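User: Could you walk me through two proteins back to back? I'd like the raw sequence and the C-alpha cells for each, with a short line separating them so I can tell where one ends and the next begins.

Assistant: Of course. Protein one, sequence then structure:
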Amino acid sequence: MKFKQVAAVLLFLGILPHHLSAQNPIVQTCYTSDPAPMVHDGTLYVYTGHDEDKADFFWMQEWRVYSTKDMVNWTDHGSPLAIESFAWADDRAWAAQCIERNGKFYWYVCLHSKLTNTMAIGVAVGDTPVGPFKDAIGKPLHDGSWDYIDPTVYIDDDGRAYLYWGNPNIYYAELNEDMISLKGEVGKLEQTVESFGAPNPEKRVKDVKYKDTYTEGPWLHKREGKYYLLYAAGGVPEHIAYSMSDGPLGPWKYMGEIMPLQDTGSFTNHCGVIDYKGNSYFFYHTGKLPGGGGFGRSAAVEQFKYNADGTFPIINATRGAPCAPTLYVSGSKRREIVLPLTLPHFLYLLPTDRAEGLYFYLFQFNCSSPLPFPIVVGRGAFQVLNSILTAFDGRFFPRHGWASSSMYFFRYAHSRHLSAFSRFTISQWSTSAL
C-alpha cells in the first residue's frame, strides 16, 4: 500500500515541472520591463512594462500584472492599463508602480503628454490589485518635462505618502491623503558626491570620474527606521546603486552598488524591493529572454538577506528564481516547508517514516538551473540517485549531519553538478526502480 502511495505521488508530480518551472526571467511569454512588486492580502503582485517584439526603441503601449503566492507559480493577469486609458497621453508607457491605500489601488505611471509634448506623471485607480483601472483625475498629476519619468511611491508609517521620479534629476513631492493630488510644491533633490556619488548633472565636470552618478528609476522604501532610495546609476550601461537616509526626504548618503555591471543582456536596469513571507526579494530586468536585449527586457528576481547593519549585499543576476520547496507526504497529505538557501547548489533531503523503512525525499535543485522542481521517491532511491549523480561526476553525501526541524528531519547534501538534473523530467523516473 505504501509503495502504491509513493507511485501515485510520483504520477501526480509528473505535472509539476510545468507549474513549478521557477526561473529567470520570471515571465517567459512576453517581454516585461521595470518590475514593481507589491504585496496585498498574502499575494505578491508584480507590475511591469511591456517591451514590444523586435523594437528599436522603448516603444511601449501597456502595463501588465503578474502574481504569485509562492515565488514559483506565476499568474498572468494581462494588461489592465494602457496608453489608451489616459486621454491626454499618446506614447511611451514607461516605468510605473502601484500601491494600496484605504482599499483602493493607485498606479503611478509616466507617459508622453499630448498637452505639453513632454513626459508627465499620471495616476490610475482600481478597486482590486489587478483592476480594472481608470485614469483617476483625467489629466496628468504632474506635467511638463522630458525627465518626468519612473515614478516610485511610498506611504510612511505616519500615513504621509511620497513620490519620487526623474532622469537625470531627482524630483519629489508629497501626496495628499486622496493619493491623486500633490501636497505643496514639487522639489528637486540636490545631488552631491556624498548623497548620490556625484553632483547635479549641470554641475558635473567633464572627464572627472565620480564615485557614481544617479541616472533614473528610483525605488523608495523603508526598513527598521531607515529609508532606502535605490536607482539605476552610472549612465549607460546601468548598474543598481542606493542611498540611505533617516527621513523620507533626506539628507541622503550614498552607500554603493547593489547590482554591479554584468552580463544582463540589457544596457538599462530597473529595480524594486519587497519583503514577502519572511524573505527579501530584489526585482530587476535583463535582456535574457530569447530575442531580447536592450529594448526587449524581462523581469527577474533574486532572494537576498540584508547585511547585519541594514545595508544591501552585492546581488548578482542569475537564471534561476528563488526556491519555494514543497514536501508531499503519503499521497494526499501535503505540507509546505520553505528552507533557507545559503549556497547556490544545495539539494534538500527530508526522510519520514524512518522506522517503517519508507522514505520520502524532497529535492530542490540548483536555484540557478532552468527547471528546479520537487521529486518524491521511496525505498531504494538512495542507490538510484547515487548512480545517476555518479554519471554526472557528482556525489551525494551528508554535509552537516542530522538536524531536527519541527517534526521533520533533514540533512544538507551537495553536488557539483546538480544543474545537470534539469535534463530530466519526472516521467524519466521509473517507479519500478524504487
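----
Protein two, same layout:
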Amino acid sequence: MAKKLGNQTDTTPEATHGIDGAGVQQQIKVDSDGHIQQGRATTVVSNRKTISTPGTAETLVAASTPCLWVDVSADTLNGAEILVGSSDVKATPGSQKGIVLFAGNPATRIFIDDVVKLFVDTQNASDAVVFNYYT
C-alpha cells in the first residue's frame, strides 16, 4: 500500500525482514502513519508433516498460520528427498521443482509471512519434514 510522506509516495511494503546490529533476524513493520516498527520473534512452534500422497503438493499446515519465517528440514529416516516450495512443487525425477531437502542435512530457512503458503512433495509415502515457524 502506497503512503504519502511529504511530497513523496512511499511504496514500502507493510512488512519486510532485516537483520539488526547483533545479526538477529527481525521483521520490520510500517504502520499506517509510515512509522517503522521492528520486532523479534517471540514464539517458536515445532511441527512435523508426513506426506500422504507422493507426487502431489501438500501444504505444511491446513489453515492460515501467520509467521515471520520457517525453518524446514527432511526427517532423518526419509527414503527420498523432500521438495519444498509453492503449490507447484514437484518431486518427480527429471522434472523436480522447489528446494531439495535431504535427510540429515541442516534446516533451510524460508522467509514467508504465512506457513500455509509452503507446500512439500516426495517420492515416498510416509516421508516427512520437520519444521519450526516463528511468530
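The longest strand covers residues 44-50.

Let me know if you want the two compared in more detail.
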